[in-house]
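Dear support,

We are seeing what looks like truncated structure output for some complexes. This example has two components. We would appreciate it if you could run it in full and send us the complete token output so we can diff it against ours.
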Amino acid sequence: MQNLYWKWQFKSAPYWFIAPFVICFIIFVFLPFSYSVYLSFTEWHGQETKTFVGLANYATLLKSGDFWQSIVNSVLIFVLYVPIMLTLALIFAACLSTTWMKWTGFFRTVFFIPNITSVVAISFVFLLIFNADQGILNQILMSLGLLDEPIRFLETPWWARVSVAILVIFRWTGYNMILLLGGIQSISKSLYEAAKVDGANGIQSFWHITLPLMRRLLAFCTILSTLGTFSLFTEPFILTGGGPNMATTTPVVLIYNESFKNLNMGYASTISIFFFILMMILSLVQLRLFREHD
Amino acid sequence: MRIQTRALSIVMLVVFLGIAAAFLFPFAWMISSSFKEKSEIFANPPIWIPAKLHFENFTQLFTEKNFGRVILNSLFTAITGTVGGLFFCSMAGFAFAKYNFRGKGLLFGLVLASLMIPMESSLVPLFVIYRDLGMIDQLWGVILPRLTSAFGIFYMRQYCMTIENELLEASRIDGCSEARIYFRIVAPILIPAFASLGIIFFVEEWNNFLWPTIILRSQENLTLAVAIRALQSGVRTPYNLIMSGSVISVVPMLLAIFIFQKQIIAGLTEGTLKG
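Here is the complete output from our reference environment:
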């Protein structure tokens, strides 16, 4: 009897261990997602009745510019921030891993702080900083004589995107720096010593040793940033509400607005499906890259 | 050469101190603004340090906006979410790492699937399910979808792979049940992993915004991030209060990272590279 019980619990143990995940998966991932697919074929504004409309939402989506606009916005924000962020992160990581740099622990912590502190709180500070007429940034730029007129950061489409990009750089440079630091520290010291013997200076060994060896890790960081940019929500939501003129409406802001502001729940689900396909492709790329990296 | 290196070291230190000041400026501005009167927030020329420190910005949050409760709510979601998440993710990760069983491939496929189906792509149906289950405006509702994160399962699976099979086999020969093996042998080995992943979970939950802002409604159920945002109301927004709320949510994190900087950064790096 004891033996039979032992066998049973041994055989069934892995299923018990995984059961909570499976239950959560069904309730919070599988059911909602299937329901989302169904809703994407209906017109529904949150009342009792849903009307089945076939592919109408899909046609609307392809015709109306909203979804494409949100994709374009994300791409533009991505282009505005990723090169700057990764360059900064790489420079920080390279400098903080040298022997001559002082206070490296302190700098690492300071650059990393924005990443673990509340997005909502930080977005609100930037909202004050970027304020056109009374914001501290315009006041400083004008008192330095760099500007005659205040920049309307959050009220003109391009500056609004720049503002979101600056906020994202602020929040994510430190995080990427930490990832790159890990990469740099795993490069063998002997490579640098050999280069030094051959008469290479610090900058030369950075270009010819560090950079080529970091290529894959930089690609990994880029993919992470791509996923992050398309699902950007809180930053534009608080800074600009997705405006002006939808200039900072990312796909997730669009889904949120269509679902909970305009109550176009069927249409919002169609957008969600497109968003899902996009994210799936990107995460497949990421998984592949990561497997090679491993 | 040596003098050159020394000069470079000093120049770079100054440059980095400048950059660090830029990174800390928003926090300094947040703290300074949190002590201002509403009219001083957008003063021209800017007020760096308010003449009178308006501590009532903070007391007002507690007396009028129920922030005592709000802070407890944030702590509750962050702590239960973290502990629960660690428990469920480590069990699943352990099962995937150390057992062979029928359906393993399929179940692991589900983990991959949940990694690829972002919550953002099913906000509406989730909201409907929550409404039908009566979980709108419930703190539990904030925590539940995050309890079995695919990332956490991956992370724990990776860590569990390093546990030696002989150790598990030996306890089985001694007649240990699998549950006992998990609690008595595996869990203690996983303590470092619990610490690293726990920090990630806690930070994420503390700063979580999208889902809580959708389902939380009444003032006494809000978490900090949502409560801060709820202070915003058009042109009459009390930005001084928003800033003092922000200070309340940010300062504990700042203190924690300066005290535990090594562990936190190591944990987070390890976490991202593993998961």
